[in-house]
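Here is the promised in-class demo. Please do not try to memorize the tokens; focus on the logic of going from shape to residues.
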């Protein structure tokens, strides 16, 4: 089941994703005790078919969902239906991959303009004069 085209253009192969159904936590009465509706998703970054630069950026992300071994673990339990939780977990994994696939453009260093420098220095001089006038008055 391939989803619509993601922002990064990288489509996940569902055979690389391991999903297990577990019991959800929290309130829900009898349903939460009987039905395994939450989804526990595991995705091994190193063993995946993602491009190498994307794998490296994923591993460099400061995200608590990525284990020390390079496995993404996502737990989805918002919905009461297992299918909705499965789709939510896949969507969240795709968002992580899309985020890692976009390359941040490096910041280009710029210099302040002559006019902005003059304006800053003039405002400093005027503030200095205001503060100098606060001193004691001498006769």
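The designed amino acids, position by position:
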């Amino acid at each position: 089941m391939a989803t619509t085209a993601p922002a990064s253009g990288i489509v996940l192969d569902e055979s690389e994703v391991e999903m297990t159904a577990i019991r959800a936590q929290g309130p829900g009465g009898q349903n939460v005790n009987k039905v395994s509706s939450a989804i526990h998703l595991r995705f091994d970054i190193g063993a995946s078919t993602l491009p190498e630069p994307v794998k490296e950026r994923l591993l460099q992300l400061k995200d608590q969902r990525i284990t020390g071994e390079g496995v993404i673990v996502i737990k989805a339990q918002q919905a009461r239906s297992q299918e909705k939780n499965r789709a939510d977990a896949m969507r969240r994994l795709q968002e992580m991959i899309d985020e890692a696939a976009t390359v941040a453009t490096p910041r280009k260093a710029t210099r302040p303009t002559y006019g902005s420098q003059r304006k800053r220095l003039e405002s400093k001089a005027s503030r200095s004069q205001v503060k100098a006038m606060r001193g004691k008055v001498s006769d």
